Amino acid sequence: MIKLSDFDSEADWKEYCDAMADAHREVPKGFVLPIEGICAPGMQTAGEINDEHARRKAQPVWSGFVCYFPDAMGKIAELSLIANEQHHPGTPLHWDKSKSKDHMDALMRHGIDDIKGRKTDTDKVWHKTKVAWRAMAELQEECDRQEAIMDVADASIDPRGGDPTYKGPQARSVRVEE
């Protein structure tokens, strides 16, 4: 895995990430998705973009996540493997979401342990790694909940009353049978 410490300077790291991002993304360099309320007149906001392809292109996963946090991602991946072996020894790596539903509480407990000077847990994993894993787990589960809400919205008629083939911002081009 390539790390920031492999480079002579942060500028070299940024240049590498920019080059890799240019090689891996389809959005034009410098593309920024407008934020609601801060757009020029006539410009689309994120909520108005219905095209899933455009939405995916507006998520710079490589340049906006992997290049920012390569070492942290490695630590989180190691923790996933350790936890998998703890809960399901000998099985392929997978997230058993039934094992824990208290991500925010666990996140806080690990954060408190770290603040009190206990840098590693009993399994020798940094508490900060567990904080980050729990934050990602909570965020992923929120994404899953929002996706489920959108799936329900897709199955309903135009919320403003009218066209059963509604394709507004709350729909995903799904024809609803009356």
Number of helical segments with 4 or more residues: 6
* Sheet having the most strands: none
Give the end-to-end Cα distance, rounded to a whole number of Å.
54 Å
Record field, number of beta strands: 0
Order of helices and strands: HHHHHH
Q: What amount of the residues lies in strands?
A: under 5%
Helix content: 40-55%
Q: How does the overall form come out from the CA principal axes?
A: globular
Low-confidence sequence ranges: 24-43, 166-178
Total count of domains: 2
- Name the average pLDDT: 76
Which quaternary structure do these chains form? single chain
Record the SSE blueprint.
Elements: H1 10-24, H2 52-57, H3 61-66, H4 70-87, H5 103-115, H6 127-154
Helix pairs in contact: 4-6, 5-6
Could you characterize what this model shows?
It is a single chain. Mean pLDDT is 76; it is low at 24-43 and 166-178. It is globular and about 40 Å long. The protein has 178 residues and is an all-alpha fold. Helix 4 (70-87) packs across helix 6 (127-154) and helix 5 packs antiparallel against helix 6 (127-154). It has helices at residues 10-24, 52-57, 61-66, 70-87, 103-115, 127-154. It starts with 9 loop residues before the first helix and ends in a 24-residue tail after the last helix. The chain has two domains: 1-67, no CATH class; 69-178, no CATH class. The chain contains six helices and no strands.
